[in-house]
Amino acid sequence: MSIFRNRREFLALTGAAAGAIALTACGGGGAGGDERSAGGDKGGQPRRGGRFRALFTGGGEQETLDPHAESLAIDMARTKALFDRLVELDAGMAPVPRLAEKWEANADATVWRFTLRKATFHDGKPLTPEDVLFTFARILDPKATSHFAQGLLSVIDLKKSRAVGGNVVEVALKRPGAEFPALLGTLGTAVVSSRYADPAKPVGTGAFRLTSFQAGRSFVAERFDDHWDGGAYVDELRILSADADARGNALRAGEAEFGYEMTPTFARTAQSDASVRILAAKGSTAHALVMKCDQEPFDDPDVTLAFKLLADREKLVQVVLAGQGVVGNDMFGKGYQYYPEDVPQRTRDVAEARALLKKAGVLNKTLSIYTSSVANGFVEAATLFAEQAADAGLRIKVTTGAAETYFKDQLTKGVMGSHRSGAMTIPNYLNDRLLSTSPFNASAWRRKDFDAAFAKAQATTDEAERTELYHGLQRTVHDEGGLLVWGHPDWLNAVSSRVRGMEAAPPNTMNSARFDKVWLA
Q: Is the separation of the CB atoms in 501 and 46 below 8 Å?
């Protein structure tokens, strides 16, 4: 059900009621003829003006403007509009400059220097190294338990970090960190002003400046003309809450310009709809089944391998993802930096799986998959895999849990479970999910040799050597881990056919849900 109580309320919030659809970007007052690139879209040169309405799944009263407490996609979109990070991640999960023009490290990667570009906050003050140091201190404040990046940035030694001149910040680390710039491109790392005190009054350097915000309802912002990257094209940005069906209907009716995370079904039907265009980032997320390696029968590597051999990955992609994705190979991060492309694709081998299961004495046991409707495709994938496992004589039942608490419950319930991950760097995925101390280690994969190899990779400054170390970690997970990555779904967003300047991009990357470069034809 849509978060809006009725259609009139939706139209009022989107500005489409009472003849208020003033969306043409070529009208009076705009700076037509601006020569900046619009990312290769057809339709002429970018033009200023108009209102842009973007729809996301809402989070009710849990939504926030605090850029360091963001957790929902709708929060992240507002953060990207109002703030900037020092570093962003490109489509391959490699770090690229934003507020930091460049960076360099000392020989052992324990000290990093970031040169800041000339940028201005919404209150007219220039960006300084002190703002960056204040940002790190705010993120790492032990009293702020909601700050998402606190764990990732705990490697920073604040007492030894300092400003160097007017535009360089020197960040000292507690241990070598060759991947430190990539950490600054992750969730919850936006730079705030040292004068920032009230999340309801954001002071950022972003391309938009806040006009109004109602948690669970609406967000309105205006173009910030002094933005260091030239400012947005549209005059006004509205970010609104709506469920998947409402997002699709609004796009088709001309009541919105952007819909975030659309379903494969909508993407199929939209192919014949001239009013809507699908932006599909191919294979940019991951769907998997996890097997808990600390419990029977998955404490036996032969059993985890047998389950991987039972998966008909092509059928899972075709049925569960409606063909909107690519098959997985039991490793996270297909196509990203540090993914070993030379590992042969694992294929289905029911006879070999049956032999391994018989040897382990598992065929006469009933196992269960713990899943939930919390994510599209979870229940369907678990059900289909149970059918596929039956081909080897294995009995698997599907058990569903509460969507509201699934990802927390999964850590303690069942021996198998449904799993997905959005886009992130491979080092961050390994850190969050596959170390002995990882907070989200759903496969209970705990090996001291793996932990030590990961620490060595993080401390290795030679890129070729570091790459090979990460490749080795990924191969170990592929061969021995409890991760059955069966598919990489396409990331599906949708825009009105009038939208220019937007491209398909994996979630959590620089160009995902980025609205400062969009314009309306």
A: yes
What is the predicted pLDDT for the residue at 59? 86
* Nearest one of 460, 261, 262, 430 to 336, comparing CA atoms: 430
- 3-state SS assignment for residue 501: coil
The token pair that represents 413 in the structure block = 């319930």
Residue 445's SS3 state is coil
Q: Are 140 and 154 in contact (CB under 8 A)?
A: yes
Q: Hunting for tokens 């059928």 — which residue is that?
A: 315
**Mean pLDDT, all residues of the chain:** 90
CA 390 to chain CA centroid, Å, is 34
Buried b (16+ CB within 10 A) or exposed e, 187-209: bbbbbbbbebeeeeebbbbbbbb
Burial-class residue 55 by CB neighbours within 10 Å (0-12, 13-18, 19+): buried
In the predicted model, is pLDDT for residue 233 greater than 60? yes
Per-residue DSSP letters for 83-108? -B-SEEE-TTS-EEESSEEEEEE-TT
Between CA 7 and CA 253 the distance in angstroms is: 12
Q: Which residue has the tokens 């960056």?
A: 132
292-315 pLDDT tens trace: 999 999 999 999 999 999 999 999
Q: Please, are residues 240 and 4 in contact by the beta-carbon 8 Å criterion? A: no
